Amino acid sequence: MKEWKIKQVQKTFTWKELERKYKNSNTYLLAQRTPFWSWKDRNVAEYKVMKESNLPAEQYMTFKELESYYLKQGLSLTKG
Q1: pLDDT band at 28 (very low <50, low <70, confident <90, very high)
Q2: How far are the Cα atoms of 10, 24, 62, 77, 79 from residue 43, in angstroms, in the given order?
Q3: What is the pTM of this model?
Q4: Is residue 78 part of a domain?
């Protein structure tokens, strides 16, 4: 049985940076999306990852689950 590990991250990413770092990993993320209000801000980071976990936990999602969650809500993943 795997030992549950949680790592504090506290970093902000653009969607492309988040995709590059987590797309092919089985890491579970505790993350939130910061809405953007202006198209001139389209390259500003907008996803804050607070914690990473190696096992599933409440409110933690893999990158693919995050992507599906935001797309189902009809939200734009990138600003560009």
Answers
A1: very high
A2: 19, 23, 23, 12, 7
A3: 0.78
A4: no
Number of structural domains, the chain? Answer: 1
C-alpha distance from residue 70 to each of 2, 26, 38, 39, 62 (Å)? 29, 19, 19, 19, 13
- The three-state secondary structure class of 76 is coil
Q: Is 77 a domain residue?
A: no
40 belongs to a structural domain: yes
| H-state helical runs in 6-51 | 15-22
Domain limits at 39?
A: 6-72
